[in-house]
Amino acid sequence: MNRKNTIWILASIPVLLWSVFYNGYPWVYPDTGTYIDSGFTNESPIDRPLFYGWFIRHTSLAETLFIPAFIQSLIGVWLIFIFFKHAVPVRNPGLMTFVSVLLLSLTTGISYYAGLMVPDIFQAYLFLGFAILMAPEKPPRNQRILIWILIGFSLVSAFANLLVFSLYCFFYLIFRRPKYLIRNPAFKGIILVVCCYLLSCFINYRSGFGFTFSPGSHMFLMGKLADRGLLQEYLDKNCESHPTPLCGHSIPLSGNWFLWDTRSPAISTCPDSTVKECWEYWEPTNKKILNRFFSDPSLSLKFMSGIPKDIAIQATEFGAYPSRPDMENGPVFSQINWRMKPDFPRLKKSEQQKSPVTFDTLNTLTSICIPVSLIAILIFLYFTPVPAWRRFTFRIFMFIFLNLLVIGVFSIPDARYHGRSIWLIELLALSGATGRKIKIPGLGSPGINKGVNPAV
Question: Which of 115, 341, 438, 445 has the fewest CB atoms within 10 Å distance of its CB?
């Protein structure tokens, strides 16, 4: 990497962190407290993996969350640089990286998610990193190793990432049937998925949850049924023949209320009022309820028929998630005050703690730029005679669709789940604009024969 590219990369990092500077502190979410606690106690939470907690614990040096935010932004800038250096080569990848980061930061939620202390941004890094590995012009070996490490960390940081990535690699191997199977990144991806799955099971076993991938997966599916009104319908139909502690309770049409509110029967009817103990208590019952639910053809059909609607809802919900203040006795306040005491005054003074930050202007720009980017991509797909860019675009869109599918089946639609990777569409549009064979007046197009895009 030459000096110019290094300067552009270093200049891109504070641009990507603009929302953190505006807030005065990295963005926190209620789950941030859980991650901090799990990283310091080395105990796996019941509803999420342990590995991002370790990431926060060790990168923060138990001092400040600014360091993890910086590292997340550095990874994003580096991946975008590798993208323009190898996957869609341009003459000045450093400059193109800076321009792209600037535009993406001003028109999408990438700056928010890069500075958010939950592993959301790593899903986009997973999609982009693997698509780079699948590109015809591959990065040097040392960079490929770093990308594989990043992919592995992304897989063990969120359950959805492992499922989406598994589906992509499986479908690719089934339909493409590559000639040199062992050398294909998708085959290596399947091996990595198996290793990450076993590692996650081992960590959960070590934490007392048994050799299982996700101790809380059944409860999340119960929340989805509650959100759709199907859990109440099941109880009305089966409480007489198969009574459960949920019988006699009214289940509102809110999966989040069912999962997290202390008034929810999922928490109020268990012996212990903490979420972890309640989810453990409910796990055997949840399995029985779900088995009976999906054994009922009418209920199963209603569930399946609602999946396209949830996918459509999630496809139109994206952007930066509204950041609300945490309560003074809330999980984020208590954990940072306990684990990172020097950082606590900065958290209290942040814009997020003064009043809710809604990102209305940014989300409005995103809702305009994403459709424009989609139109631009369709135009470039028609006019751009670069098969490598077309394949790269297809892979990113396949990842995004599979993510929507996983959300539609297993989760409740939420702006975070799509907003964390939607910026990749705008990045594709920017790369498509530089990937056309444009003849520059007075210069010709010397970059075409060398495999370099002449537009930059």
Answer: 341
